[in-house]
Amino acid sequence: MDYEPAGYDDFDAHLKKLQDQGLLYSIERAIDKDAEMHPLVRWQYRGGIPEAERKAFLFTNVTDAAGRTYPGARVAIGALAGNRRIYALGMNKPEAAIGQAWLDAIAHPIAPHQVQRAPCQEVVITGDALRAGQGLDALPIPVSTPGYDTAPYFTAALWVSRDPDSGIQNLGLYRGNLKAADRVAVMMERSTLAGGSVHWYKYKKLGQPMPVAAVLGAPPIVAFTGPQKLPLDCDELTVAGALAGCPINIVKCKTQDLWVPAEAQVIVEGFISTDQLEPEGPFGESHGYMALEEYNFSMTVTAITRRTSYTIASIISQVTPCESSVIKKVAYEPLYLSHLRDHLNIKGVTRVSMHEPLTNLRRFLFLSIARGTPKTEIWRALEGAASFTPAIGKFCVAIDEDIDPEDTDHVLWALAYRCNPAVDTHVIPNRGKGHGPEFKGCEIDSTMLIDATAKADYPPVALPKQEFMERARAIWEELQLPRLTPQSPWSGYSLGDWSEEWDACAARAAKGDWLTNGRRSAANCSRTAQPQDLARDIRLSDQD
Q1: Preceding omega of 321 cis (within 30 degrees of 0)
Q2: Is the C or the N end of the chain the one with fewer CB within 10 Å?
Q3: Which residues, at least 6 apart from 216, have a Cβ–Cβ distance to it below 8 Å?
Q4: What is the structure's pLDDT at 543?
Q5: In contact, 365 and 349? CB cutoff 8 Å
Q6: Is 148 a residue whose pLDDT tops 50?
Q7: Burial of 501 (0-12, 13-18, 19+ CB in 10 A)
Q8: Nearest to 15, CA basis, from 60, 50, 53, 48
Q9: How far is CA 262 from CA 3, 323, 541, in A?
Q10: Sign of the dihedral defined by the CA atoms of residues 137, 270, 226, 123, in that order
C-alpha cells in the first residue's frame, strides 16, 4: 500500500512544535559532536536550571573532532523529555492525562498500518557503500561522556527484534556502541529481561543470527514506548498506535524481515551474531557511574536507510536528573500506582514516587499511604512494589500523605521520627542486581536498608571530564544561554576502578578516532563469554 501521511507528529514536526512553544534552542554555531555537544547540554542539568526552564537543543552545524561536517544532518538532544512539558507535547496530551493515557493504550492496542513507500527509505545504502564513507561513520552520532566513553553511542535508538517463536516484534531502548562503519555493539540487559536479549537466546538455541533494526529519530509517540515497561509479548507499535489514536505507519526493512516506523529519520538494519560476543564500553550510564567494558551483542550492518535530510535524536542520560529519567519517571509512576491500587486492590496507596537525582529512579520507591490504612495493607503495598519488576525497588518506603516524596529531606524526617528499624523494616533476599555497577560477590542483591557508603573502588562518575565541561561552559556563555549555578558533581572524576587503557580509548574517541577502538574490540571477540561479562585487561596491542 502506498504511503499515507500519519495522524501524529514525526520528529521534525515535533521539533517545530517545540520551537513555536519556546522550548527549543537552535544552535547554528559549529559544535563538535565528539567533545562539545553533550557537555554543552549537560550544563542544563548540572547548572542549577529548574526542570521547567530546561529546553531541547537542535544542532544544525555539526562537526566532529577532526573537523568533518555532516551536510543535511542535524542532531537534537533533550527533544523527547528535556522536561515534562516537552514530553507532554510529544504525547500530544496534557501532563495530567499522561498516566491514564498509558493505561488505556496498554489495554486497547491498535495494530500498525503497513505501507510500501516511506520517508525513512528515501536514501538506501547497502553493500560496499557502507564501508566506503556512507556507513555509520557518516552519521553524526555524538560521544556522550567525553573523557570516558570510548566511541559515539546510539542513546535514543529503538532496537527492533522479533520473537522467532511467536513472530511478535519488540521495541527496546538500548545503548549502541559504534565499532566500525558497518558494526555496532549493543547492550540488551539480561537482568531486566530486555526483550531483545530474550529473543537473542532463542535465536542462539536455533543456531541462527538475530535480525535487528535500530530506529533513529522515531516519531515521539513511538519513541516513548521503548523505555516503557510492557509485557514481552506486547508489540510496542500497537501501544504507540493507541497513544496516537490511529495506526502507526510501518514499512518493511530492505534487508531484514522486520517492520519499522515509516516516519523515522534513520534506520540501521543488520543481524546480531549468536556465535560470539564483542567487548563493549565503557559508557556513562544512567545509574551515574561508568559502565565498564563488558561482552555484549555484536551487530553487522546490512543497510542504512534514511531521509534525504534527517535529524538524529540523542538522549542525555548518565547522572540523573537527565532526559532519560524524565521519560521513565513520567511513565513508570502511574503504572506502579495502577498495579498496587487496581491490580492488587490496595486502595490506601495514593501516590508512587521514584527518587530521581543521582539514584536514577530504580533504587528508591516512595509510597504515599492514606491515613487509617491497615498495617497489613501497608506491607502488601511495599511487597507488591518491590516485586513488580526485577530492576526497580531496592528501597521501598511507605510514607504518610503529609510527607512530600519529591523532597528527600522530608522523607528522611519521616524515617527519623516515624520508623523503628527493629520492627518497621524487613529484608527480602535473592533479588537481581539490576542496573548498576557490578562487583565481585554481589551477583544477587536484596531489598533492604543498608550502609550506603562505598566499600570498594567504583567506576568514574559518569560525567564528561572537567576539561570538556569547562570548554562547553565557555561555549554556553558565548551563546548567552541562561545563567549557570553549577551543582556538585558537574564533571566526571575517577573513583578507582578505571584503567590507563580505557583512558586512552576515551581520549581517542574524544578526538574522533573511535574506529581504532572498534578494531581493538574486534580483535578481542570471545566465543565463551556470556552477555555483560566484564572485559578487563584488553589492550590495543592485543590485535597485533
Answers
A1: yes
A2: C
A3: 139, 154, 156, 157, 264, 265, 266, 267, 268, 312, 313
A4: 44
A5: no
A6: yes
A7: middle
A8: 60
A9: 8, 25, 44
A10: positive
DSSP class of 346? -
3-state secondary structure of 283: strand
Q: Which of 442, 444, 351, 360 is nearest to 405 (CA)?
A: 351
The residue type found at 144 is S
Tell me the C-alpha distance between 515 and 446, whole Å: 40
Local structure of residue 530 (DSSP, 8 states): P
Cell numbers 572498534 correspond to what residue? 518
Q: Give mean pLDDT, residues 188-200.
A: 81
Q: What Å distances lie between residue 253 and 161, 188, 199, 258, CA to CA?
A: 12, 21, 19, 6
d(CA 135, CA 181): 5
Contact 110, 238 (CB under 8 A): yes
Separation CA 18–CA 188 (nearest Å): 31
Task: Categorize the per-residue pLDDT at 329 as very low, low, confident or very high, splitting at 50, 70 and 90.
Answer: low
Distance CA 73, CA 138 (A): 10
Q: How far apart are CA 329 and CA 251, in angstroms?
A: 31
427 burial level (CB within 10 Å; 0-12, 13-18, 19+): exposed
What distance in Å separates the CA atoms of residue 326 and residue 431, rounded to the nearest whole number? 25
Return the higher-pLDDT residue of 428 and 398. 398
> Is 67 a residue whose pLDDT tops 90?
yes
Q: What is the phi-psi region of residue 496: left when phi exceeds 0, alpha when psi lies from -120 to 50, beta otherwise?
A: left
> CA-based diameter of the chain, in Å?
70
Instruction: Give the list of residues 6+ apart from residue 427 with CB closer than 8 angstroms, or none.
Output: 446, 447, 448, 449
Amino acid at 253: C
State how far the Cα of 260 lies from the Cα of 453, in Å rounded to an integer.
45
Find the helix or strand (DSSP H, E) in which 268 lies: strand 266-272
Query: pLDDT tens digit string along 195-250?
Result: 889 999 999 999 999 999 999 999 999 998 887 777 778 899 999 999 999 999 99
Say if residue 135 is exposed, middle or buried (CB neighbours under 10 Å; 0-12, 13-18, 19+).
buried
> Residue 203 corresponds to which cell in the numbers above?
535465536
Instruction: For residue 370, give the amino acid letter.
Output: A
The β-bridge partners of 173 are 158
Q: What cell was used for 73? A: 544532518
**What whole-number distance in Å separates Cα of residue 160 and Cα of residue 61?**
30
Q: What is the pLDDT of residues 20-41, one digit of tens each?
A: 999 999 999 999 999 999 999 9
Read off the C-alpha cell for 247: 495506526
Percent of the chain with pLDDT over 90: 53
Give the side-chain half-sphere CA count within 13 A for 134: 14
